[in-house]
Amino acid sequence: MSIPDKKNCSDRGFTLIELSIVLVIMGILVAVVVGGSDMLQTAKLRGVITEVQKYKVAVDSFKETYNALPGDMTNAVDYFGDAGDCGNANRVDNPGTCNGNGDGRLSGSAASDNKEPFTSWDQLALARMISGHYSGGGTEAEIGVNCPRSGDYEGAGFSMRYYAAMTSWGVGGYEDALGRKFAGNFIMFGKTHGSRNDLNTSVVNPADAYYIDSKMDDGTPDFGFVMAGNGSSNVGNCTTGAAPDIIYNMTNEGVSCNLIFHIGSGDSNY
User: Fold this and answer.
1) In this predicted model, what pLDDT tens digit does every residue of 85-140 receive, in sequence order?
2) Residues 1-30: tens digit of each pLDDT
């Protein structure tokens, strides 16, 4: 009796069970990759939150210690030495610092006042309340030179200055329609915009801005400790609606936002 030839096992196709197992494994791998990416992004955002909190604590500690706002302090040279050249040039190699005018505002509108937003970082470092070394001068924000860089976002950093209003963000004047004060000293998170003493270029999308705002504040872009709006070079709009009903534009995935964080009232009480 002849025995029929058997097909080689290597020629056998996949069974439904085997295909199901492969699909499950592929699904798990995709979920791991996507989940890992989300975790990395969340870690970056939490890093920004930690940095802002660190700088806010440093500013508060400086005010408590010296009874003055860093950068605005009228007798800073008595504590940190006199830089000598207190114009607007960067003083990278000069020890010491420069006095502010004591009005409670990190002013930056006039050329003669441009140094206060930068001297603020210089004095925080000289007081050893933050790490690093900053030039304390300049006419525009230079990340890593006169203001600190972000440890989580390449090309981004933190600037600090007084704002009377941000009309392009829907928040204009000293008070809005509900009587809520806006003007004050703020830390700004963003990227270099050139010829400005703040970092006004967009750095995150609306969903990421909302994440930071909701974790640190109230999740509304036009009021509170954290506020956000269109930065320069924005891709789409960061927010939508009109005051007092402005919300984050969650349908826009483009990098359109930068954020500011309130650190003081901008009057004689800082």
Assistant:
1) 777 777 766 688 999 999 999 986 445 556 899 999 999 999 999 999 999 988 88
2) 555 555 555 555 668 777 777 777 777 776
Which residue do the tokens 């199901």 mark?
20
**Contact between residue 97 and residue 77 where contact means Cβ atoms under 8 Å apart:** yes
Q: What is the 3-state secondary structure (H, E, C) of the chain?
A: CCCCCCCCHHHCCCCHHHHHHHHHHHHHHHHHHHHHHHHHHHHHHHHHHHHHHHHHHHHHHHHHHHCCCCCCCCCHHHHHCECCCCCCCCCCCCCCECCCCCCCCCCCCCHHHCHHHHHHHHHHHHCCCCCCCCCCCCCCCCECCCECECCCCCCEEEEEEEECCEHHHCECCCECCCCCECCEEEEEEEECCCCCCCCCECCECHHHHHHHHHHHCCCCCCCCCEEEEECECCCCCCEECCCCCCEECCCCCCCCEEEEEEEECCCCCC
pLDDT reading at 174 higher than 50? no
